Amino acid sequence: MRPLAAIVDLSAIAHNYAVAKRCAPGRQAFAVVKADAYGHGVREVVTALHDIADGFAVACLEEAAEVRAMHGEARILLLEGCFEASEYAIAAQLGLDLVVQSAAQAQALIASDVSRPLNVWLKLDSGMHRLGFGSAELRLWHARLQDAGQVAELNLISHFACADERGHSLTELQVERFLDLLDLDFNQRSLANSAAVLTMPATHMDWLRPGIMLYGATPFAELSARELGLKPAMTLAARVIAIHDVAVGDSVGYGAAWVAQRVSRIATVSCGYADGYPRNAPSGTPVLIDGQHAPLAGRVSMDMLTVDVTDLPGVALDSAVELWGSHLPVDEVAKACGTIGYELLSKVTARVPRRYVG
Ligand SMILES: Cc1ncc(COP(=O)(O)O)c(C=O)c1O
Q1: Terminal CA-CA length for the chain
Q2: Looking at residue 68, what is its pLDDT?
Q3: What is the pLDDT of residues 195-227, one digit of tens each?
Q4: Rounded Cα distance, 235 and 291, in Å
Q5: Global pTM value
Q6: What residue ranges define each of the domains in the chain, with the CATH number in brackets?
Q7: Which listed residue (254, 335, 347, 356) is catalytic?
């Protein structure tokens, strides 16, 4: 068997959910499990949080149906709302909480024939300009939907563009715009993603929406997951499958992009870009072998990557490799690659077996 697996610690996810709840006593929290629970496996994550989470949030109806199949009662929030008219009836059957983010969606909702009213979350575009109504338009739709037969609760939701950069002026403006609407009668309010859950109590409202923090990665550039009390959930674990001694001037890998400046030992590792390890990871990106840091050397191949282990004489065939995880934060690898932990976690491909512990 190819020595590569994503080992997912479900107790870490439960711990991280509890951290979110502790940040905001008395509030409820949708565990954001879209994109296959950020690559961790939605079935297992929902099962692990079954008796703990107040609800779950997903990106589309297909994801919502998968969560509903595993959890009969939980509130399930459809973050982007419905994409087609036929989806409203299904959303009602599934008993979903529905974001309504545009006039087109609002019209489709009131034109739909649903078996039972839905909890509707009117989305305010408070400054991100991705989804949502402007304040004036939201007031209009609040009035129109208040007595619509398709609507049970009428709620308010918005999303931050820059909560991960602490003190950003846009965040303040977004909060102001959200608060300005609270003269309207809403049943529930939701604003906080992980960054806001962790550092902005004034944004906690009624329902939190923690995503990345559940998986033990940080939303911040300058605050680590460990400092935030989060436990990494996924360890991408491989092994050394070959060792080569190379002479000064010898190159390693595609494009001969890495050239030995000294007599070197190169370990070949069973993980490549077809597994989700980023191909653009530069030489020097940290890799953990036998618990010690070593630098990536040369280009990442489809199924393998190479590491300079010259300074780790104990490394041998079958040595354990951690690409990221409990001892090497995914955020550190992401930073070296010019991306964020979210992307690395959610892009681990289907061919990598997930193994569950905890
Ligand atoms: C609308 C919405 N709420 C909450 C989240 C969770 O954000 P985070 O993973 O930063 O906690 C996301 C994630 O992209 C989102 O799109």
Answers
A1: 23
A2: 98
A3: 999 999 999 999 999 999 999 999 999 999 999
A4: 13
A5: 0.98
A6: 10-215 (3.20.20.10), 234-357 (2.40.37.10)
A7: 254
